[in-house]
């Protein structure tokens, strides 16, 4: 029995040691982030880094003038060399109907693999289908047409952390020929987007704003089509990092203004939407950019602690000096109000009174003896 108990105790100790080692390994690791991390609707101009692979999945809901619609997305990104990145994803409308399949090849400028201020990238966009392609008469809902839509987009961003003041802010601007892939078969599109991101040590907060403009493809040939339909949206969100490695993104999008024709496909544009996205690095080699960014945050945190300690010491010193000055001033006030001559005169008078009383007592004693 004692041997069994001993073996159980030994097993528990060994298991506890393994758990502690496993936990400490996660606790001590630094933040793992991709240098291509941007906002929900604007990726960074940076690319991932050669050989890095990230898988991700989105779940979201959309409310428009016609219905409430669900959406699911699965995709992956891979870094190619130092200036290229490839991304592919597939979406499912209402979690059962096939939606757009997208492929993007992003090329950035040389030197964008380090912490810098200005970044620029060109992206080749290929949309292989749209959700409404599956509903056309020539399409089978179970075998959608893979009609290609080759387009392009451009991204500019400014990383203010590289400035002398080291502001942990990144600003984004993008131009694209796609605002909503689901209606590419019917509309030429222009999308202008801007964003600002507050990058903290682990997490981040961001806000995107966008303008989408649409021009009908199949309009009256006698009338030259224009980008006469538009809408403006805003989307706040954030990135929460789990285990210093995985990311959970959430954003809320709402339409602030829109000017569209009645009973058109643009009614599919959302009034409100909510999206949750989970990113999981499969293969990750930390790039110089993010290593520097992490070091900057650690250094700022260290300097902040030193400043706090320095300020506390200064406060203590100021308090001691203030108390000393108060004490010194009170002593000086006492010296100014203390009158030695007056005190001496009072003492002499009191002594004279005491002597007079003693003389009277002695006289009384003498008279008693005579009697």
Q: Assembly type of the shown chains?
A: single chain
* Stretches with pLDDT under 50, minimum 5 residues: 10-29
Task: Give a short account of the largest sheet.
Answer: 12 strands, antiparallel, barrel
Mean pLDDT: 77
CATH structural architecture of the largest domain:
Beta Barrel
Secondary structure tally, helices = 3
Mind telling me the CATH class of the largest domain?
Answer: Mainly Beta
The portion of residues forming beta strands comes to 35-45%
* Radius of gyration from CA coordinates: 39 Å
How would you write the strand order of the largest sheet? Answer: 1-2-3-4-5-6-7-8-9-10-11-12
Q: Which geometry do the CA atoms define?
A: elongated
- What would you call the structural class? alpha+beta
N-to-C SSE series? HEEEEEEEEEEEEHH
Number of strands: 12
Question: What would your notes on this structure say?
Answer:
It is a single chain. The protein is 29% helix and 38% strand. The model is unreliable at 10-29 (pLDDT under 50). The longest helix is centred in the C-terminal third of the chain and has 50 residues, at 288-337. The N and C termini lie far apart (113 Å). The protein folds into two domains: 1-30; 32-285, monomeric porin ompg (Porin, Beta Barrel). The chain has a twelve-stranded antiparallel barrel. It is elongated and about 155 Å long. The chain is built from three helices and twelve strands. The chain has helices at 2-28, 288-337, 340-370; strands spanning 53-63, 68-80, 84-93, 97-108, 118-127, 149-159, 169-176, 187-199, 204-216, 229-242, 246-259, 272-283. The protein is α+β, with helices and mostly antiparallel strands and 371 residues long.
């Amino acid at each position: 029995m004692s041997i069994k108990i001993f073996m159980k105790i030994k097993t528990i100790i060994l298991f506890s040691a393994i758990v502690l080692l496993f936990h400490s390994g996660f606790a001590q690791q630094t933040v793992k982030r991709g240098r291509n991390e941007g906002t929900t609707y604007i990726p960074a101009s940076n690319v991932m880094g050669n050989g890095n692979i990230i898988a991700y999945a989105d779940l979201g809901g959309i409310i428009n003038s016609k219905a409430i619609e669900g959406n699911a997305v699965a995709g992956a990104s891979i870094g190619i060399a130092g200036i290229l990145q490839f991304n592919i994803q597939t979406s499912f409308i209402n979690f059962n109907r096939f939606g757009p399949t997208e492929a993007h090849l992003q090329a950035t400028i040389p030197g964008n693999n380090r912490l810098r201020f200005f970044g620029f990238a060109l992206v080749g966009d290929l949309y292989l289908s749209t959700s409404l392609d599956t509903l056309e008469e020539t399409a089978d809902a179970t075998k959608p047409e893979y009609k290609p839509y080759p387009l392009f987009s451009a991204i500019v961003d400014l990383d203010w952390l590289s400035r002398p003041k080291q502001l942990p802010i990144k600003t984004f601007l993008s131009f694209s020929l796609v605002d909503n892939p689901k209606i590419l078969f019917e509309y030429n599109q222009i999308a202008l987007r801007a964003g600002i991101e507050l990058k903290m040590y682990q997490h981040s907060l961001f806000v995107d704003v966008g303008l989408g403009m649409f021009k009908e493809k199949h309009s009256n040939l006698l009338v030259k089509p224009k980008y006469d339909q538009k809408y403006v949206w805003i989307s706040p969100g954030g990135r929460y990092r789990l285990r210093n490695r995985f990311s959970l993104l959430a954003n809320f999008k709402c339409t602030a203004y829109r000017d569209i024709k009645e009973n058109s496909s643009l009614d599919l544009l959302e009034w409100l939407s909510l999206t949750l996205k989970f990113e999981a690095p499969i293969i990750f080699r930390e790039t110089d950019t993010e290593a520097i960014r992490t070091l900057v945050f650690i250094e700022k945190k260290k300097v902040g602690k030193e400043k706090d300690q320095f300020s506390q010491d200064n406060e203590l010193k100021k308090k001691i000096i203030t108390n000393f000055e108060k004490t010194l001033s009170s002593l000086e006030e006492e010296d100014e109000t203390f009158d030695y001559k007056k005190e001496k005169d009072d003492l002499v008078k009191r002594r004279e009174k005491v002597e007079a009383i003693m003389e009277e007592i002695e006289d009384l004693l003498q008279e008693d003896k005579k009697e």
